[in-house]
Amino acid sequence: xxxxxxxxxxxxxxxxxxxxxxxxxxxxxxxxxxxxxxxxxxxxxxxxxxxxxxxxxxxxxxxxxxxxxxxxxxxxxxxxxxxxxxxxxxxxxxxxxxxxxxxxxxxxxxxxxxxxxxxxxxxxxxxxx
Length: 129
Hints:
Largest sheet: 3 strands, antiparallel
Order of helices and strands: HHHEEHE
Oligomer: single chain
């Protein structure tokens, strides 16, 4: 845009030509300026999600370490809190985890089909690999 302005000042381009060329550039600059806060917010959100994910992994490791010392009722309560649904199929078990919808559609899309699938229960089942 600076070069275009210099051409106008030097008289190499008319005011009409300057306007015709400058308006689209100015409009695009305004669009980009409006987009910056949204992108910064999304970056902050993703940073927080990453930190939250790291915290969740730490808590999961702690839970794993304490699992054998928990009572059956405590284990059941934990499973009920984190599982949306448990499917028992022929030779396998799938646990669909609960999640809270996130404002970011990309994160929500990745989480929508999150599922933990365990290996087949019986080594002689046709599903075993």
